[in-house]
Design goal:
elongated
């Protein structure tokens, strides 16, 4: 086949049309999602935004941990490894060699 044959030219034209439609649909979808391609941010603005998002994430994480305290009855229904895992979410290291009751008492004492 020659590069200037009608089949090659037709295939190239079809490829250009397909690419044009794909680009138009991608642009339309990005506009529907609220993506603004013209918005530019400086490095300082990006770092400030990252700090703000990190602070929000950290404060939300702390609030969830404070509100997620389990009662002694709930802890009694858990096995020792689950109690140990729960203690780690509160940054408390428990010893599984203790009895379950002693683990729960230690957890309650250290979480206050």
């Amino acid at each position: 086949m020659d590069l200037l044959s009608p089949q090659v030219l037709a295939l190239g034209a079809v490829a250009c049309i397909v690419i044009t439609f794909v680009v138009k649909f991608m642009k339309k979808d990005s506009e529907d999602l609220g993506i603004n391609h013209n918005q530019t941010m400086s490095l300082v603005e990006i770092e400030d935004e990252m700090d703000r998002v990190e602070a929000e994430h950290h404060s939300a994480k702390v609030e969830v941990v404070k509100d997620d305290r389990k009662s002694a009855a709930t802890l009694m229904r858990m096995n020792k490894s689950q109690i140990e895992h729960y203690g780690r979410t509160l940054d408390i290291e428990l010893d599984r060699r203790m009895t379950k009751v002693n683990m729960i008492a230690d957890l309650e004492l250290r979480s206050e």
